[in-house]
UniProtKB/TrEMBL annotation:
Compositionally biased residues, Acidic residues: 452-462
Chain ranges of the NADH:quinone oxidoreductase/Mrp antiporter transmembrane domain: 131-415
Record keywords: Cell membrane, Membrane, Transmembrane, Transmembrane helix
Record's protein name: Na+/H+ antiporter subunit D
Origin: domain of life: Bacteria
Topology term for the membrane: Multi-pass membrane protein
Protein's UniProt keywords contain Transmembrane helix: yes
Positions of region (Disordered): 452-484
Organism annotation: Streptomyces parvus
NCBIfam families according to UniProt: PRK12665.1
Recorded GO CC terms: plasma membrane
Family: Belongs to the CPA3 antiporters (TC 2.A.63) subunit D family.
Length: 550
């Protein structure tokens, strides 16, 4: 069983080579490779999750080099759950992107690059979840960074290039900080392996431990978009294509949360920075949701709710009890699916209504009842309406806060309740503006051409005479544009609004909703699993013994 541990990383990397080799020459085969590999990764993730739950942590030392020399990959209950949820979500997003690409007839180079970049992103995420040492964790982050920049800037439009540049600058800064933390850790302990660090860090002076802990937390807080290190997110994510924004918002920020969970439990037990984490959690929840209240663009609104709800997870990490960790893990799994779903729905709204600007939308509950249902379910889940999984996660965290009984814990419980109510207000505002009220006079009708950002498709259209270079390019072949949609297509070019949404995009969105609802239906086994996961994280011994053989 241990031999299966590297496969969630290796399979996407090998498939990337095949995908690049075929390119656009065999587009169908390229799509088949991507879907088949992500399906296999999802199946492997389920197997690893079940095996880790029944047998304990699984590990493999690549090249048979023992720590600290070799690369160690470890799959325990936490990484198994994260792998399973993330691989299932990335598969759904891939199907959504295939539907969007086929509908828009994007067959040029950027779409051919999308599949390899997406597979590399999946490999980087899997590497991060399975990493058994700080160096390999850093490698996973860098793999994600390279793929993320390609995906953010697909099509090369002005808004996407600007957003991608911001994202890369912030990511490079966090990478430099991460390298500094790794160097300090290795200089102090002589290793970067998690299991060995769990033993050796405790022997260092308390000041050195706290400095290393603070550096690592800062790095992971940037990745997770925790306030006040989240200012880059609302400007970076909304300009990307809908499937890219969905997987970034739903998954990549949770990689940072996962790293915080892993290091705070395995490397730095004792919760020395618990008060600081709880203060940051409260600030993230309150300021993030107030930012969402002020937005009128759906994608920016969802970006601010993302920052806000990261605070719930940091709340559990800062509280550092078994119940709190269990609630935080439930909320991470829930939020991956719900946030991804909402951004996928935002892409459908843009395709149906011609924009994500709420002041220009309306009447969709009558005009597109299926789209209204696809939004309503995850929106209520995000707000924590019983008995959905969002309510289960929030209830677990609040119960842990009440059980703790400390001053900060009670403040966080009150902050969590207020944030949940404001989240309900925010999604109700979206519902009222986009779906419930009558359509405003300026809303784009079906068949309207949307131009992407500051680019135009005129040069790619030969015009009525079918000949390039005659001066009539882009004239008379399509209706005039009603506005701009910076994330309209994968390629970043024009898209025509439609009253009938593409079936693959709808099916993929419905599948992510089904995953979120499955957390509700199987709430008892899920909470039992996360409770066992929390207990394993606090014990630490099973992880250390598996890796070091003690």
């Amino acid at each position: 069983m241990n031999a299966l541990v590297p496969l969630p990383v290796l399979l996407p990397l090998c498939a990337t080579g095949l995908s690049l080799a075929f390119g656009t020459r065999l587009g169908r085969f390229q799509r088949f490779i991507s879907v088949a590999v992500l399906t296999a990764v999802t199946a492997l993730s389920v197997i690893l999750m079940v095996a880790a739950d029944r047998q304990g942590p699984l590990s493999v030392h690549l090249g048979d080099f023992a720590p600290p020399l070799g690369i160690t990959l470890v799959a325990d209950r936490l990484s198994g759950l994260m792998l399973t949820v993330s691989s299932a979500v990335t598969l759904c997003v891939l199907v959504y992107s295939l539907g969007q690409g086929m509908t828009d007839r994007d067959k040029e180079t950027p779409l051919a690059v999308f599949h390899p970049a997406y597979l590399i992103l999946v490999a980087g995420v899997s590497c991060t979840f399975l990493a058994g040492d700080l160096v390999n964790l850093y490698v996973g982050f860098e793999i994600m960074l390279v793929a993320s920049f390609v995906l953010l800037t697909l099509g090369g439009t002005g808004p996407r290039m600007r957003a991608g540049s911001t994202y890369v600058i912030i990511s490079l800064f966090s990478s430099m900080l991460f390298l500094t933390a790794i160097a300090m850790t290795y200089a102090a302990t002589g290793t970067a392996n998690f299991a060995q660090l769990a033993v050796r860090l405790a022997e260092l002076p308390i000041g050195v431990q706290t400095l290393i802990q603070a550096l690592l937390l800062t790095v992971f807080a940037i990745k997770a978009a925790v306030f006040p290190l989240a200012a880059w997110l609302p400007d970076s994510y909304p300009t990307a294509p809908a499937p890219v924004t969905a997987v970034f918002a739903g998954l990549l920020t949770k990689v940072g949360v996962y790293c915080m969970l892993r290091t705070e439990t395995l490397l730095f037990p004792g919760n020395r920075l618990g008060v600081l984490l709880m203060a940051i959690a409260l600030a993230s929840m309150v300021i993030g949701i107030l930012g969402a209240v002020a937005q009128t663009d759906l994608k920016r609104l969802l970006s601010f709710t993302l920052i806000s709800h990261i605070g719930y997870m940091v709340f559990g990490i800062g509280l550092a009890t078994r119940e709190a960790y269990g609630g935080a893990i439930v909320y991470v799994a829930h939020h991956i699916t719900v946030q991804t779903t909402l951004f996928l729905v935002a892409g459908l709204i843009e395709r149906r209504g011609g924009t994500t600007e709420l002041t220009r939308l309306g009447g969709m509950a009558r005009a597109a009842p299926m789209l209204a249902a696809l939004f309503f379910v995850p929106a209520m889940n995000l707000a924590g309406i019983p008995p959905l999984s969002g309510f289960i996660g929030k209830l677990g965290l609040m119960r842990a806060g009440v059980a703790d009984g400390g001053g900060w814990a009670w403040v966080l419980v009150a902050g969590s309740a207020a944030t949940s109510l404001l989240t309900l207000y925010v999604v109700a505002k979206v519902w009222n503006l986009a779906f419930w009220r009558a359509a405003p006079p300026g809303q784009a009708a079906a068949g309207t051409v949307l131009e992407a950002g500051d680019d135009s498709d005129a040069d790619s259209d030969p015009g009525p005479d079918g000949v390039f270079g005659t001066g009539d390019e882009g004239i008379g072949t399509t209706p005039p544009p009603a506005g701009q949609a910076s994330a309209a297509t994968l390629h970043g070019r024009a898209v025509i609004t439609t009253s009938r949404l593409p079936h693959p995009m709808v099916a993929a969105t419905a599948a992510t909703i089904a995953i979120g609802l499955a957390f509700t239906v199987f709430a008892d086994p899920l909470t039992a699993y996360t409770d066992r996961t929390a207990a394993e994280l606090l014990q630490r011994a099973p992880y250390i013994q598996e890796v070091l053989g003690r």
